[in-house]
Inverse folding.
């Protein structure tokens, strides 16, 4: 064993008390779904975890009706102070059940346990604590006096941060006085169903939170339901476009958080060792299944070769494998479909003339795996520089001047995030000012905080989540 190898340190799954089958969560009860149930599997082993209900039109109707009743009879009439107490209770229960939630998330999603344990679940608790604090202070959120809730919110979320996206959606909606029907992604419903148990434990009034599992069709039925007042969606640009079209003219308030192709810009005066860690975190965190991932590395030409060499050396040390092993840096790809998409775009990258490199790494036989990959000699016209790969694949481009870096960074249909690495604060501010991205990190990457708004420009969607701006999406009246 070399000094870089570690003995396996698997997290036990004994803490989980999973049911073989889960129903839909409507009116604080688990009820059977009308559609044919499906199996959720572990992407690391392809072994089944549990059967999940598939919500159809009648189920969506029931869930929206439960949310409407709860909105009219209890939640919209309750004082902000009391709503806040429920949210604080949820936050504390998330903390109490943190280990269980982290293990379930890694099992169902494939992300490394050290990420679900140290990033996802703590942020989920932080989101509920943060918005619990706002519930009785809505008059002071800069939205004018006495801002009003919207009603029933339909929320559809993706598979890359299943529980965290749930928190981003549910916490502000509830704090603002709305009730919700949430549809998790079909490959990652498990933690949403454990969250439903937390809702029961917290003794929320029935119908305030409803969870309808199922595939895209269930999501489509939910966002198009006539008794929904607000739609919040995170996922692909294609589905986002479809939702924008179908909700146009209905009076439903809409926020869309879609894809990204972020530029991570490294100037020649950057602290290089720090930047290497930021580049790795930017694209290999969560297997690159991150809408704001730093998937386009822009390096100043004078340091290009040095950065690429150091990056390759660093990648040799990444441990790819069992998501439940506490040493794992890169876990499993979430699904066979996503793996096929990553493979296809990577093959296109090679065919278009970019140079592909991966460290030597043994991938497990079963499950869905993709080795961390770097493409050099990439030009802005290559598909791997334009399309969201949503996997552990980095495209490296170079630039000579700040103006060229800005032009290349902005040369994308997306505009979700960007990173700037430089020793000079003035350069960081000057460049950040010209980047068309909703979130810009300086000398760091992929940092999230509930007080900080998050969202995009152009095809990355519209609306903001997080901060007081995130409340505006769930209240009548815009930010003043
Ligand atoms: P998707 O947009 O198809 O799915 C996201 C969610 O929307 C899921 O819950 C899905 O069931 C639901 N959905 C699907 N069709 C729907 C419809 N017509 N109406 C309402 N809801 C619908 O995303 P995906 O298939 O999981 O991933 C495809 C690509 O999307 C990825 O390769 C990636 O590029 C991108 N993506 C982005 C994010 C993000 O956070 N921005 C997250 C996941 C995926």
């Amino acid at each position: 064993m070399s000094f870089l190898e570690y003995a396996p340190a698997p997290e036990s799954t004994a803490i989980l008390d999973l049911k073989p089958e889960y129903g839909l969560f409507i009116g604080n009860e688990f009820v059977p779904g009308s559609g044919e149930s499906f199996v959720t599997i572990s992407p690391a082993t392809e072994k089944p975890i549990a059967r999940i209900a598939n919500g159809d039109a009648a189920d969506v109707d029931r869930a929206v009706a439960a949310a409407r009743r709860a909105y009219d009879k209890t939640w919209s009439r309750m004082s902000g102070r009391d709503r806040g107490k429920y949210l604080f209770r949820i936050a504390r229960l998330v903390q109490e059940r943190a280990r269980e939630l982290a293990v379930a998330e890694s099992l169902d999603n494939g992300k490394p346990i050290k990420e679900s344990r140290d990033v996802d679940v703590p942020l989920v608790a932080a989101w509920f604590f943060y918005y619990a604090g706002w519930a009785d202070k809505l008059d002071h959120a800069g939205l004018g006096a006495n801002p009003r809730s919207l009603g029933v919110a339909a929320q559809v979320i993706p598979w890359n941060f299943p529980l965290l996206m749930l928190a981003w959606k549910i916490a502000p909606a509830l704090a603002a006085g709305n009730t919700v029907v949430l549809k998790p992604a079909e490959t990652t419903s498990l933690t949403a169903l454990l969250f439903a148990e937390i809702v029961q434990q917290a003794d929320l009034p029935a119908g305030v939170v409803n969870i309808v599992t199922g595939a895209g069709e269930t999501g489509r039925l939910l966002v198009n339901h006539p008794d929904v007042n607000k739609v919040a969606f995170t996922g692909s640009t294609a589905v986002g476009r479809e939702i924008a079209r179908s909700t146009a003219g209905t009076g439903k308030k809409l926020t869309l958080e879609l894809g990204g192709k972020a530029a991570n810009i490294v100037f020649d005066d950057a602290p290089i060792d720090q930047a290497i860690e930021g580049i790795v975190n930017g694209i290999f965190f969560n297997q690159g299944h991150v809408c704001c991932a730093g998937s386009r590395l822009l390096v100043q030409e004078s340091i290009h070769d040095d950065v690429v060499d150091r990056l390759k050396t660093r990648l040799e040390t990444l441990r790819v494998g069992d998501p439940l092993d506490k040493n794992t840096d890169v876990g499993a790809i979430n699904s066979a479909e996503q793996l096929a998409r990553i493979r296809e775009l990577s093959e296109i990258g090679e065919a278009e003339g970019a140079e592909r490199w991966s460290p030597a790494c043994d991938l497990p036989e079963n499950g869905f795996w993709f080795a961390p990959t770097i493409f050099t000699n990439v030009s802005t016209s290559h598909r791997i520089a334009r399309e969201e790969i949503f996997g552990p694949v980095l495209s490296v481009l170079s630039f000579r001047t700040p103006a060229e870096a800005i032009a290349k960074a902005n040369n994308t249909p997306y505009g979700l995030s960007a990173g700037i690495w430089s020793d000079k604060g003035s350069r960081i501010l000057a460049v950040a000012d010209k980047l068309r991205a909703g979130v810009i990190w300086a000398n760091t990457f992929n940092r999230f905080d509930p007080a900080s708004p998050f969202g995009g420009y152009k095809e990355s969607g519209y609306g903001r989540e997080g901060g007081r701006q995130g409340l505006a999406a769930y209240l009548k009246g815009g930010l003043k």
User: Anything to note?
Assistant: Residues 85 and 132 are 7 Å apart (CA to CA). The two ends are 61 Å apart (CA to CA).
